[in-house]
From TrEMBL:
PANTHER family: SET DOMAIN-CONTAINING PROTEIN 5. Residues 49-207 form the SET domain. It holds the Pfam family SET. This is SET domain-containing protein. It comes from the Eukaryota. Coiled coil: none annotated. SMART domains: SET. InterPro entries: SET_dom, SET_dom_sf, SET_domain_protein, TPR-like_helical_dom_sf.
């Protein structure tokens, strides 16, 4: 089917009366979703309330640790109330009756879910939005990847989801929390990337962090219309900018390698990867550290390095990805093969 002929489809919440989810996607994908994803499976539970939502200085509301949180702890697991496939964003924006698909989908939610959605922050200027809902959705979406199935019946799409609680987390250029989408339970999850003491704000990253301060500030201003005043930006130094610029150049090569340019394994030597790990450690970028470790293991395989070298990197890589994403992590599963 030609791209211009794709017609998005809204799944009303009545299909999931206990979970209240609206999904915008093609009919075939919707059928696959309803057959493959266990949306009726109970949510992963935390032992006790991990966070509270309250005022964050100069940032509106934010999430704060309600108790001491250990590294790797699951802070929250939540299904999106609204999600859509990103490739449909600029294809068809309206239904046959002229309503935007955003409005049509949200109208199908329960009154409680609609209220929680409309209570989220809208950071878009009025001149940049058709209506309040568009501003709220664009401010609060988390992107995630759906990949499952085989043969002609499979999914390999990037979606964006809006979560009533997860979307309360504010940005930080050295975040303490990682966002992960669990495919088996169709939930967004926060896991602590380090110990978070009671009372500390729970933060995530809205943008790639391997850029110097000026580029990060521009990206946040262009996309979310605010100026970051986190501790990293406030104390930003030339040395930090140089480290992140060097990291950015390395991550470009890593991304190319991960997308299939395997000839780069000869460039991504152990010394180069160790330098990247050092930079990520100095900048306290936990997820980037894990991403470099994962690629380092693959490069060691590609370069036919001794088994002991692979184990030296593979063990820590498994530990870090389990911390970031739990046992459902696809990266972790690949590392264990």
């Amino acid at each position: 089917m030609a791209t211009s002929q794709i017609t998005p489809f809204v799944v009303p919440h009545l299909l999931y009366p206990n979970h209240d989810i609206a999904i915008v996607d093609e009919p075939d994908s919707i059928a696959f979703l309803t057959g493959q994803y266990t949306m009726f499976k109970p949510l992963p539970q935390v032992s006790s309330p991990m966070f509270e939502v309250r005022e964050a200085e100069n940032k509106g509301l934010g999430m704060y640790a309600a108790r001491d949180i250990d590294k790797g702890d699951l802070i929250i697991s939540e299904r999106p109330v609204y999600t859509y496939r990103l490739s449909l964003e600029n294809v068809v924006r309206h239904s046959g009756e002229g309503k935007s698909f955003e409005i049509e989908a949200v109208e199908n939610l329960s009154p409680n879910s609609r209220q929680r959605l409309y209570e989220l922050k809208n950071s878009l200027p009025e001149s940049c939005q058709k209506d309040k809902l568009e501003g709220i959705l664009n401010t609060n979406f988390f992107p995630f990847h759906l990949k499952s199935g085989c043969g002609t019946h499979h999914l390999d799409h990037t979606h964006a989801g809006c979560f009533p609680s997860l979307s309360r987390a504010n940005h930080d250029c050295c975040p303490n929390t990682n966002f992960f989408f669990s495919v088996p339970t169709f939930t967004g999850q926060f896991r602590a990337m380090r110990k978070i003491p009671k009372g500390e704000e729970i933060t995530v990253s809205y943008i790639p962090l391997d850029d110097p301060k000026q580029m990060r500030q521009r990206a946040l201003q262009d996309r979310y219309h605010f100026t970051c005043t986190c501790a990293t930006c406030s104390a930003s130094s030339e040395a930090s900018d140089m480290r992140r610029s060097e990291l950015s150049a390395l991550m470009e090569k890593i991304m190319a390698f991960e997308k299939g340019n395997f000839s780069l394994h000869s460039v991504l030597t152990s010394a180069v990867m160790d330098r990247g790990l050092q930079l990520a450690t100095e900048e306290r970028l936990h997820r980037i550290h894990a991403e470099i470790l994962n690629t380092a293991v693959k490069c060691l395989f590609a370069n036919n390095r001794p088994e002991y070298m692979i184990i030296q990197k593979g063990g820590p890589a498994q530990h870090e990805w389990r911390t970031l994403e739990g046992d459902e992590s696809l990266v972790l599963q690949d590392l264990q093969v």
